[in-house]
Amino acid sequence: MPYQHNSDLPDNVRSSLPEHGQEIYRKAFNSAWDQYQQPEDRKGDASREETAHKVAWSAVKNEYHKQGDNWVKDKS
Question: What is the total count of domains within the chain?
Answer without folding.
Answer: 1
